[in-house]
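>> Question from a student workshop board

For tomorrow's exercise we were told to take the sequence and the ligand below, predict the bound structure, and bring the output to class. My setup keeps failing. Could a helper post the expected result so I can at least see what it should look like? The ligand is N-(aminocarbonyl)-beta-alanine.
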Amino acid sequence: MIVTAEKSYRAEIGIKDGRIAQISGGQVSAAAQVLDAEGKWILPGIIDVHTHMELPMELATSCDDFTTGTRAAACGGVTTIIDFSLHRKGTSLEASLRDRRRAADGRVAVDYGLHAEIVEVNEAILDEIPRLVRDGVTSFKLYMAYRRDGRMVDDGGLYAVLKRTAEVSGLVMVHAENGPLLEHLTEQLLMDGKVAPIFHARSRPHQVEEEAVRRAIYLSRFAHGHLYIVHLTTSQALSAVQETHDGGFPVWAETCPQYLLLDETVYLGEGGGDFIATPPLRSPKDREALWLGLAQGGISVISTDHCPFTKEQKRLGMERFDRIPNGLPGVETSLPLIYTHGVYQGHLTANQLVAAMSANPAKIFGLYPAKGALEVGSDADLVIFDPQVEFTISAKALHMNTDFSPYQGFTCRGAVQLTMLRGRIIAQNSQFCGSSGYGQFLHRRIFEPDNCQFWSTHEKASSSAGGPAGQED
Ligand code: URP
Ligand code: ZN
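>> Workshop helper replied:
Here is what the output should look like for this input. Compare the format with yours to find the bug.
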């Protein structure tokens, strides 16, 4: 069963020279090797557009490097990742991209691209944007928080980047949390001796995210920009996105499995600090709103924000919630988890899963239809997925370089049986069988907003009025 963003149908796929050469109702013509996928699903390879391999933070560096992280990705059905350059003040965007490519090239097992991070905005930086877009780096990431780490940009900088980027058909990704507000709330909590992991969530209440999302949208509309909100987590922020769509203006949003499956009560349990990520995990009501947002098209993408740490690394900051290295592992587990909790439990159709995890990311980030599609001429990037198999997640059995999984003990319905990248099998039955270095750097095409208005094709469910927008606090 071939499952794409548009439809599901039975057919055979013929692959030649790394590309899909034939899709037919009958047997494909003479093949050197035949893979029997009877009873299974064939999906386009998963595209995870938000990963942080070997990301240095204040107390620790995320513990998957490009080698281990992309091997794990392959085992999870992911055939493309898009990671980030590490921009530092006083350096050019180009230099930061060059350094990041040096870290990744020759070590990646899946295809990869890079978003250009921007932590400082000046004329020289703005002048680089058109060049980078021409060279295939078409998306730029800015932070409205993380002032302590020197990564926060102000509103003028964000506006300027939105404007310049739109002029050359690029896309701006924003980490939308009000940094100064959350810093103030954090200081207040710490002064009161409130240092436990649950106060991470209290220091970043939904207002912190909603205000930043609304401000980013406002600035983007003023600049006629193209805006993509990373890791959207709350019903209120989702309402801001939906209201923008309802007003006839585009804005794109992603969410992540952790915000769909987990809630803030984990911070109260033993090892609560292991779950620290920003934005924090939210309420069960928010989870429901996010599923609905995906089904209705308000949220276009599921990425993972894969940024793993070991338990020991997390413990380095355990004495104070704001010192704990923030981030969660996820690149290897996203597909079975979203299948189980999204499709099997009835929140999404299988086609909606493929849209959010493969086709839409490919369209938004300039890779479609080479990636994100199963069409003649597309790269033979695919997953054979067995929707019948049941397994239980255990960090020990996974390939990510960490002893912690936020989903430890979760039972999944559906498993990746085989992952293929450009015609080569790179993982089979949870064993990596590709090679580090086979992955290629992807030069991406410009952003085409008219091909990405996913919400306009969705019928609004009648429950929407009392759903995401109806929550009060
Ligand atoms: O906690 C997170 N999300 N860590 C990774 C860096 C970021 O903010 O995306
Ligand atoms: Zn991130």
